[in-house]
């Protein structure tokens, strides 16, 4: 009998991702393995084109169509994360509930686990009439200057 997502532990490693594929009856093709290995190695949010380019750079020949099809299959099964952005989709490895810090200077997306105070959640529930069971927050900001550069800026007349 196949395991359900509720019965399987969260995906925390490449091995967990491969195991989840097997539990779901997904074939672990060479291309699928390359994509998962790359995502787990880089720990970044990457577009399909970036994944294709990086695989090509390291001599892993995977076609464009294969990259897109595998990313769709993996994200639809909850094995990888898919972020919808105005400029396209980005794929990452964390699939459990988490938030993102988006750097407007570098376009970097950093995964963070944020726990809101229970009184804030209760206020939201009271205002909306909806019981909150999960949440994701997107933070946006600019890279903070390095402490040495900040001191230089502050000490200038």
TrEMBL record:
Molecular function in Gene Ontology: DNA-binding transcription factor activity; transcription cis-regulatory region binding; zinc ion binding
Keywords: DNA-binding, Metal-binding, Repressor, Transcription, Transcription regulation, Zinc
Gene3D superfamilies: 3.30.1490.190, Winged helix-like DNA-binding domain superfamily/Winged helix DNA-binding domain (1.10.10.10)
Residues given in the record as Zn(2+) binding sites: 103
One matching Pfam family: FUR
Cofactor (UniProt): Zn(2+)
Superkingdom assignment: Bacteria
Gene Ontology biological process terms, A to Z: negative regulation of DNA-templated transcription; regulation of secondary metabolite biosynthetic process
Bound cofactor: record note: Binds 1 zinc ion per subunit.
Family according to the record: Belongs to the Fur family.
PANTHER family, A to Z: FERRIC UPTAKE REGULATION PROTEIN (PTHR33202:SF7), ZINC UPTAKE REGULATION PROTEIN (PTHR33202)
Protein name, per record: Ferric uptake regulator (FUR) family protein
Organism: Crocosphaera chwakensis CCY0110
